[in-house]
Write a structure and sequence with these properties.
The chain has 11 helices and no strands. With about 230 residues, the protein is mostly helical. It has 2 domains: about 60 residues, Arc Repressor Mutant, subunit A (Orthogonal Bundle), CATH 1.10.10.60; about 150 residues, Tetracycline Repressor, domain 2 (Orthogonal Bundle), CATH 1.10.357.
């Protein structure tokens, strides 16, 4: 084994340990920021929550502001990756359009209602005045990416004659709103558990309304709403 390989092997556990410690700090910081807000959060409390010393936080992530920015962007990036994976459920068979959209919506809501996603969303809006650039950055790297990806798939269905969509981005935004936007109020912005039956009713009603607006046969049929 060469010297370089020896050095790489020696660094491996150290690098993994450093990444694990950084992840622990980020997750602890998110919990503290979500509980008390940016202004009231202290690095001493975050360090205790993460099981590290305060200097360790400075060494890994810097000041409280830098830490907050890292927490928001890194957590949003992880949430966004999970949300984009949801698109594997997007229906490609026009005969399965309704159940496919309901499956997609259910998986999307599960991602949006994840505890970390809800925490980031609450903090993003609560601190929008203090960190307007962060608000824009997180939106651009997270929800906007999903909306654009969903819009592309809706456009393909429309081009194939299975939906009536003139503005795919607007249609994607409206789909998300129809299947999700009731839920933050029902869960008090993610601070109360949701009844799965209530979530299912919101999803079903949202897909119904979407297909009435964008289906090729709003009066009924495989792409529209039966009955």
């Amino acid at each position: 084994m060469s010297v370089g390989e020896n050095e790489q092997t020696a660094r491996g556990p150290v690098d993994r340990g450093r990444l694990d410690k950084r992840r622990a700090i980020v997750e602890a910081a998110l919990r503290v920021f979500a509980q008390v807000g940016y202004a009231q959060a202290s690095l001493d409390v975050i360090a205790a929550e993460a099981g590290v010393s305060k200097p360790t936080i400075y060494n890994h992530l810097g000041s409280k502001e830098k830490l907050f920015r890292h927490v928001m962007t890194e957590t949003a990036a992880r949430s966004n990756a999970k949300t984009l994976d949801v698109l594997t459920a997007f229906p490609t068979d026009p005969d399965q359009l309704r159940p496919g959209l309901e499956d997609l919506a259910t998986k999307l809501v599960d991602c949006y209602c994840d505890e970390q996603s809800e925490s980031v969303r609450r903090l993003l809006y609560a601190e929008a005045v203090r960190f307007p650039d962060l608000f824009d950055a997180v939106r651009a790297s997270g929800p906007n990416q999903f909306t654009e990806a969903l819009a592309g798939r809706l456009a393909r269905l429309a081009n194939a004659g299975h939906l009536r969509v003139e503005d795919p981005v607007r249609a994607a935004n409206q789909f998300i709103a129809l299947v999700y936007e009731e839920l933050p109020g029902m869960s008090a912005l993610g601070t109360r558990p949701l009844d799965p039956e209530d979530v299912a009713k919101v999803v079903t009603a949202g897909v119904d309304t979407f297909l009435r607006a964008f289906g090729t046969d709003p009066a009924g049929g495989p792409d529209g709403v039966s009955g």
